[in-house]
What we know:
Elements: E1 22-25, H1 29-44, E2 48-51
Parallel strand pairs: 1-2
Amino acid sequence: MSEKISIQHNSVENIDFAAATAIFVYLVPEGMRTIVDRLMEAYNKNVRIVSYIFSIPGLVPVEVSRMFNSL
Length: 71
């Protein structure tokens, strides 16, 4: 499976989304705004985008999941 997955830990400004088929984003709103144009470009190429906690400016979620621990 590792030949099909590439996990990149880097500054978001240095990541090339061109070959992406899915993008997982965990950025605060300010950071999200810095890459929204690049995310929209990927979205328009049918790249699956998953954002943890913060929404992507200009996009309405297709699905929202909430997970809660019941202690």
